[in-house]
Amino acid sequence: MDRLHLMTVFVAVAEEESFAGGARRLGMSPPAVTRAISALEDRLGVKLLNRTTRYVRVTDAGSRYLDDCRRIIQETDEADEAAAGINAEPRGHLAVTAPVLFGKLYVIPGIVEYLQRYPDMEVSAVFLDRVVNLLEEGFDVGIRIGELPDSSMRAIRVGHVRRVLCASPNYLAENWAPLHPAELINHKIVSALGVSPVVDWKFAQDISVRVKPRLTVTSNDAAIEAVISGMGITRLLSYQIESHRAAGQIQTLLTEFEPPPLPIHVIHREGRYASGKVRSFVDLIVLRLRAEQALN
User: Fold this and answer.
1) Is 90 exceeded by the pLDDT of residue 130?
2) Measured distance CA(101)–CA(149) in Å, rounded
3) Residue 185 and residue 227: Cα distance in Å, rounded?
4) Domains plus CATH for the chain?
5) Within 10 Å of residue 171's Cβ, how many Cβ atoms?
6) Which residue in 140, 24, 167 sits closest to 78, CA to CA?
7) Would you say residue 31 has pLDDT above 60?
């Protein structure tokens, strides 16, 4: 059997964790899928999958081989696309991920423009406030806030944001504006887990303050609403409160103690050939994000 075909079958079965699921994904019969996996294991002389009546899991050797197969299949698809014409109109499906509020404010408008420009494209947008592994979770492009670990991903810096303390004018009128981070222990604190998952808030000049939140929420939107309502002081990213700050609903505090800014990158899986659909989206979103004043 064709080696690339065998790899494709293996990836489908491994990702679906099921021979039947892999068969459905590829439009093949289950016996044909079973024969393909057996042929691949015979060719390699190694067991790639552990099978029981309840589950299918990759072995240690299979896990390493799975990463290589994904990479090879991706590069083959990109080579085919490049051969078909670098100036061809993008078509197909694109999977994009970004932080929740960032995606709502800045990525969705870019996706809408992209889809209007390229009518043969479809986009799945998944917004999550956690670090997403593009390769393992099947995303083509991601927007990430924070320092990047070393990886094989292509990263394009598009701006930066700051960690800021903020409160409403009403709260500050009824209380007092802190002049030093240490004074936060005497204030009502709202903690947004997506931005400050720990209670030790770090500042410039090696200052660290252990705060005791009166309110802890899992949504940045919820923290903003609570602060606007006068609940207390919270810590968020500058872009998340920019419109509320401009409207006078929120004031930033202790700006001289802010830690260094966090970079924003557009990342994507880089192969030997630039995928037309990825390249066209990255070009568009990079220009849009670099033009946003709140991010630069």
Assistant:
1) no
2) 23
3) 17
4) 3-84 (1.10.10.10), 92-161+262-295 (3.40.190.10), 163-257 (3.40.190.10)
5) 21
6) 140
7) yes
